[in-house]
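Structure in, sequence out. Go:
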C-alpha cells in the first residue's frame, strides 16, 4: 500500500504503511502548516486508511471474490484545484483494478457508482452509513484542502516556479531502405508542459500516421523527456526541422534542423581517424625500434590504405 502527497508534480511526502506516519520529502512542507494541523491529519490517516483497507477486503469476501482477488488494486485520489479566478474544485475518486469505481458528489454529500457490480454496491452501501465520515470528507476536500493548498503554494513557490530548459537532438533511423525515421529527442526540461513539432520546409507537419510523439516521461533528476518521430521518404527533397517551445525559453524556440547530426557524425569520424593515425604512428615507432624496416613500410602502407577506405565508405554512407 502506497500513499503519496503531490503539489502539481512535486512529491510532498508519503505514508509509511507499517506505522501510518508521514515522511516529508520537501523541508518546507512540514513548516507550511501548523503542527496541530499535521497532528490532525496524522490521526485521521491512522484511523481511516486501515479502515478503508479492511472494508475492501471484507467486501471482497462478502461478495465471494477471492481474498484478495488477483489482481486487487485499489487507487484513491483526493484533493482540490484552485483556478486563476479564485474558484476551487474538490474531488475524491476511487479506482479498482485500473478502472473508475466510485466518486464522491460534493454537492449532495453522497457516493456515486462508476461500476455496476456487487462489490461496488456493497462499498457504496457501507460508505453511505458513515455519515460522519462523509461530512468530514466534504469539509476536508472543499474547505481544508483549499486553505492548505494556498499555504503550500506560497511556501513552495520556488519549487513550483523552477525552470529547466530543454536539450534537443535530432538523429535518424532507417528501418528499411524506403523509409527514414527522423527522431527528435527532447530531455532535461521542467516544468512538464512542452510543445514539440516538426517543420517541413518551414511549415508545421499536421498530426497523421507519419508523426508519432511519445508521452512525457520523468527523468531521475526531476525533469522530463519525450521523443517525436517523423517518417519520411529518403531523399524526398524537403528540409526538416524539430521545433521546441517551453516556458523556460520565454518567447524563443529551439529549432534543430535535420542535418546538424551529420556535423556531429563528421566530427566523430574525424576523432576516430585521428585516433587511428595515432595508433599507426605508435606502431611504426615500435617496429622501427625492432629494426624491421621492410615490415614497417608495408604496415604503414596498409594502415594508410585502410584509413582511405574507411573515409570513402563513410562518405558514401552520409550521401
Amino acid at each position: 500500500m502506497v500513499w503519496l502527497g503531490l503539489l502539481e508534480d512535486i512529491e510532498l511526502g508519503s505514508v509509511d504503511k507499517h506505522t501510518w506516519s508521514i515522511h516529508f520529502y520537501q523541508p518546507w512542507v512540514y513548516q507550511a502548516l501548523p503542527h496541530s494541523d499535521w497532528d490532525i491529519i496524522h490521526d485521521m490517516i491512522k484511523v481511516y486508511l486501515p479502515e478503508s483497507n479492511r472494508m475492501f477486503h471484507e467486501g471482497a469476501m462478502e461478495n465471494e471474490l477471492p481474498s484478495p482477488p488477483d489482481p486487487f488494486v485499489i487507487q484513491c485520489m483526493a484533493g482540490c484545484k484552485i483556478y486563476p479566478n479564485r474558484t476551487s474544485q474538490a474531488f475524491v475518486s476511487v479506482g479498482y483494478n485500473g478502472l473508475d469505481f466510485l466518486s464522491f458528489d460534493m454537492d449532495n454529500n453522497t457516493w456515486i457508482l462508476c461500476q455496476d457490480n456487487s462489490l461496488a454496491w456493497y462499498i457504496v452501501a457501507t460508505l453511505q452509513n458513515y455519515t460522519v465520515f462523509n461530512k468530514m470528507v466534504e469539509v476536508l476536500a472543499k474547505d481544508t484542502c483549499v486553505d492548505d493548498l494556498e499555504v503550500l503554494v506560497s511556501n513552495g513557490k520556488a519549487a513550483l516556479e523552477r525552470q529547466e530548459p530543454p536539450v534537443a537532438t535530432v538523429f535518424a533511423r532507417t528501418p528499411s531502405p524506403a523509409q527514414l525515421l527522423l527522431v527528435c529527442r527532447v530531455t532535461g526540461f521542467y516544468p512538464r508542459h512542452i510543445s514539440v513539432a516538426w517543420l517541413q520546409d518551414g511549415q508545421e507537419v499536421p498530426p497523421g500516421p507519419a508523426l508519432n510523439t511519445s508521452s512525457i516521461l520523468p527523468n531521475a533528476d526531476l525533469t522530463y523527456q519525450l521523443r517525436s518521430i517523423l517518417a519520411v521518404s529518403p531523399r524526398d527533397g524537403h528540409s526538416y526541422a524539430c521545433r521546441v517551445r517551453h516556458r523556460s525559453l520565454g518567447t524563443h524556440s529551439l529549432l534543430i534542423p535535420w542535418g546538424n547530426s551529420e556535423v556531429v557524425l563528421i566530427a566523430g569520424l574525424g576523432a576516430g581517424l585521428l585516433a587511428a593515425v595515432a595508433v599507426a604512428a605508435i606502431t611504426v615507432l615500435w617496429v622501427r625500434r625492432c629494426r624491421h624496416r621492410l615490415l614497417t613500410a608495408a604496415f604503414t602502407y596498409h594502415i594508410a590504405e585502410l584509413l582511405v577506405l574507411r573515409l570513402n565508405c563513410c562518405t558514401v554512407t552520409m550521401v
